[in-house]
Amino acid sequence: MIRLFGRFFDYLSYLFFSTNRHGVHSPFVYDFADNVLYKQSDVAFEDIEYFRSQTINSSGKFNGLNLSDFTMKYTLKSKYCQLIYRMVKYYNINSYIEFGECTGIESCYLTSYALSIQNSNFKYHYISKSPNEIRKFTYNQYLSLHNMTGHTSSEIYHSDMKLFLFHITNNPESFSLQFEENLQNISHNDLVIVTNIRYSHEHYIAWKQITNLDKVSASIELFDVGIAIFSEKLQKENFILRY
Questions:
Q1: Domain containing 195: what range?
Q2: Which among 9, 7, 22 is positioned nearest to 224, based on CA atoms?
Q3: Could you give the CA distance from residue 159 to residue 161 in angstroms, rounded to a whole number?
Q4: CB 28 within 8 A of CB 191
Q5: CB 240 within 8 Å of CB 221
Q6: Strands (E), 65-208
Q7: Which of 108, 100, 115 is nearest to 144 (CA)?
Q8: Is 58 part of any domain?
Q9: CA–CA separation, 5 vs 27, rounded Å?
Q10: Hey, which of 98, 103, 146, 186 has its CA 20 to 30 A from 175?
């Protein structure tokens, strides 16, 4: 109950300080807001959302936790997952690296565009220090859920940009160590998405430590999700966008 009240007041603070695209003076971030953040997805993703409902109603266990509880607490809401899909599509990204504990729901959104256009050149890596049961569970969901139908295209675009997806679950310190270990693999022109940045005060501190890194050019906060931008062309600034 205390955590729910805390999140409620965090959300009120987020609404107070956030702005829409008309309050943004960065061309890159304005373009992101206009063409990605506030756009509608062109796929309904019924298969993935059906799987989400199954995990929520499940009585199974997940790394010692109830699978339903883990999904409700740490899996991104559909609107954030669809945003990941639109980012991959808009920036023509075909290299994705995912870190941390997850149910596989975000993984399917992450790779669904490449599969829908039958891009055999896309690269997806899931890296976690989680117990084998989590890696096996996530991998099985990844394999079983990619039969969804999407729009098709005869053109396959390629981009040098990589997208890193980091999950913060019940151990923000472990996330911080994992991010630090992989920082050298993140280059300019890459994007980093961090989940659950406002789940707790410790989660938010872990996120702010990333935004303060010299290598991070700019950052975007969307309440539950943080996006770190690595680009030499941008001035260092933090944007809080309403979503």
A1: 2-43+74-240
A2: 7
A3: 5
A4: no
A5: yes
A6: 65-66, 95-99, 123-127, 163-166, 191-195
A7: 108
A8: no
A9: 36
A10: 146
